[in-house]
From TrEMBL:
Annotated spans, RNA gate: 301-315
Subunit structure as annotated in this protein's UniProt entry: Component of the eukaryotic translation initiation factor 3 (eIF-3) complex.
Pfam families: eIF-3_zeta
Function: mRNA cap-binding component of the eukaryotic translation initiation factor 3 (eIF-3) complex, which is involved in protein synthesis of a specialized repertoire of mRNAs and, together with other initiation factors, stimulates binding of mRNA and methionyl-tRNAi to the 40S ribosome. The eIF-3 complex specifically targets and initiates translation of a subset of mRNAs involved in cell proliferation. In the eIF-3 complex, eif3d specifically recognizes and binds the 7-methylguanosine cap of a subset of mRNAs.
Transmembrane segments: none
Disordered: annotated segments: 1-26, 55-88, 109-163
Annotated localization: Cytoplasm
Biased composition (Polar residues): 1-11
Species classification: Eukaryota, Fungi, Dikarya, Basidiomycota, Agaricomycotina
Name of the protein this chain belongs to: Eukaryotic translation initiation factor 3 subunit D
Domain of life: Eukaryota
This protein's domain notes: The RNA gate region regulates mRNA cap recognition to prevent promiscuous mRNA-binding before assembly of eif3d into the full eukaryotic translation initiation factor 3 (eIF-3) complex.
Amino acid sequence: MASFTLPTINDNADGGWGPSSSNLPPNFKFKEIPYAPYSKSDKLGRFADWNDISGDNRQMTFGPASSQGPQRGGMSGRGRRDGQPAFGSGTASAFAYFHAEDESSFSLVDTKTAATRRGGPLGRGRGGGRGGAGYAARGGAQRGGRGGFYGGRGGGQRGGRRGWRDWEKNNRVREASVAISPEWSMLEEIEFHRLAKLRLEVDEPEDLGTYGRLFPYDKSYDRVTTRSEKPLQLVDRIKYNTTTSDDPVIHELAAKETATVYTTDVILAGLMCATRSVNPWDIVIVREGNKLFFDKRDGGPFDTVTVNENASDPPQDPATVNPNNPNEKIAVPEAPTINSATSLSLEATYINQNFGFQSVIETPPPPAVELEKPNPFYGPDETEPLASCGYRYRVFDLGITEDEDIKLCVRTEVDAYSAGQGNPRQGQGLVTIRALNEFDPRAPGAGGALDWRTKLDSQRGAVVATEMKNNSCKLAKWTVQSVLAGADTMKIGYISRVNPRDNTRHVILSTQSVRPTDFANQLNVSLANGWGIVRTVTDLCMKQPEGKYVLVKDPNKPVIRLYAVPMNAFTGEDDDDDVPFDGEDTELAA
């Protein structure tokens, strides 16, 4: 019978499992190195498992780890389905690799060709999944202006195939609204993101006087639909667009030291909505003593109406090759096409004026209302009839503290009054009239606009959302002008061409009534921010000595700059501010 000899047992006097380190040979080369598996074939087992502990019921399992051991996702979190621990689960950190260097500046260039698939970022409207982040109702942010605000079915922005083949589009470089002379000295430069942070709360204004005559608004235009459209007529009326320095009433008020700043609602609204502007503009500022006069240049950007200024692909004038540099393209001053930026601006101005002339009742009843004083710009030798227009001169207090005496006098305009809604002589029932125009939904620069004839009655919300997106600056300025004038209602007409290829004949498809204060909230227009911009520009100009200055919006950057210019600057231009607009444009009527 074979003998059986027990192996040598090294008693661990220090306590714990396994042999004591004191029993190892003195020259043992692996003494300080912990054990770690070097092959996936190694199976690590447990002689005793103390992991299965629940409250005071402590259970010790002997033998190889089995199904009784910790399961996948158990306390150890690293078990396997066969009960064996995962390979390397007991590996000591001595053999682990830790990378301590900073590789934040390292980037890998992916040279693989991206797979094109439907529904990607440039897809047809399901990027990121239906109902994903940034989506409203059934789809993405905006499909032709419907998503996000009213909820559309498309993702991203389908209108006008925004973002499609942008790399093939020429870099658009706009020309400044006024040529910057080398003699001018730049005094200040302010970015739009700084202007957007300004705030100033202004109290209700003080009325100084009313001038002109108002006709009642024709409410039959509120019932116009695409099925009962009305033609836009050419109405021969006079409406003045006089700048601040040529206003005789402002001259009288300035002589009485009524305010510190004097301006008109068109100029003031443009400054208050400066952060929304994309096209270039400029304001001429004259300081005389402690008074500032904000003026516009005749024929400048404040005399016309923009079209789709805020669209991602706005209308533009065609470019031609510079004869001195064949590689450079320059804008043509007079655009030959009817859908160019210049032609559309003239067309929109023509439409706005004639829609305001046409949508009032000149034959009583109800009668016209004569305001406190007659029209200050209508001379005794004038024979043509005046348009319905009322001027309200108002003073706003821009002082931050009670001791500050900084007031702004502004000439505001209203176009009509609403019969039966109060006395217009007391500022009740006043109406401003504006018009949006459709030229060709399929033309470049349309901004993804819907076809008004088929969508205006059934999907008015989508049409409005598209216009709010493409004409954010224009609508904001109209709204601010209405609020400054104290109008109760703003009428917005929707006017389209009879034929998309003819810009001389138009029809009225519908009219919308909005309250200016409510519409300002929908447009996210902050009057406090606008007043903060006005106060900042006023402070900058009051720090300068007496003289002439010009505030210029950079044509290609969201920046405004203040220049000091000679006193004879802009005096060489034809001074015909007092020439009235007779409702007809020679280019459109040709």
